[in-house]
Fold this protein.
Amino acid sequence: MAATLNGRNVAILAADGVERVELERPRQALEDAGARTVVISISSGQIQARDHDLEEAGTFDVDEVVENVSVDDYDALLLPGGTVNPDKLRMVAAAVQFVRSFVESGKPVASICHGPWSFVEADVARGRRLTSWPSVRTDLRNAGAEVVDEEVVTDGNITTSRSPDDLPAFCERIVEEFADASQSAGVTGRS
Amino acid sequence: MAATLNGRNVAILAADGVERVELERPRQALEDAGARTVVISISSGQIQARDHDLEEAGTFDVDEVVENVSVDDYDALLLPGGTVNPDKLRMVAAAVQFVRSFVESGKPVASICHGPWSFVEADVARGRRLTSWPSVRTDLRNAGAEVVDEEVVTDGNITTSRSPDDLPAFCERIVEEFADASQSAGVTGRS
């Protein structure tokens, strides 16, 4: 894969309960394309990962706490799934504000599975064409989104997928979308 | 406690990820008041319980599968919380229909913590005064509910509470509400 994301900084926002493969595999695809990735959470230390929501699946180290970071320092945002993960993020004002600011900045944002709940809490789902894990769709629709059942959907700066089965298409698409972003925060400091 | 629920059949609808104390303590309170309780789930066998969503906390035996039961056979419905539990229930049409039919029947229904997500999926939150765990409140509001932050709330036939801390008030209230129901399905067969 061409190193199309050289010099790009990608924020990965996640909390306890994150679905392991939905962080690990997109992160690998982004790093293979040259990006630097940073795991951001609601507190320091480690976050607990899960397989299929219920099975313990190791931990991820937290690089930054969301209260201390700025959208200006990142070129793109990835929101993995896992049921408990976005349920914890949406209760922390700094996490919700980070998601809202990212979407409003126009920089690319991608989410899979249960991750799009954060769009509901940030009230940025309105008028967007989105997909998600089936359980989240009524909440997205009630938040004003146009919900579709497709493996990967890009509407403006938001890309979404439904489940781990969609990871090949999701990873390919986010590398393209994150490369298309007009400026690099790593280079400009602001964008 | 007086045996005010003698002869009453209470349905407890739950799936994997149920918060242990939110099934166990209300069930004990209902049985202490004379009720018979039945654990209903989306498949047979056992369901996995959790403490604080992430810690393994044993299992509960499933008495009935939701596809095989009728609202007519129960006098009241209890929906415990735990993040993953209602997330699984809301994807099963028979579970959503059971909740909707129960609320529309006028029989008492009670839910705590994340349990009220089932009211969103069944589209029976509209116009109701409800409380829940904080993460669920935006989804309830978007589904048309009037959301409040109180330890226990009864609006018509729906009683809700926010978290395990509210269990003493919740358990006391549901015994009262389930006793007030005008007829017993166990006696009449229909109500």
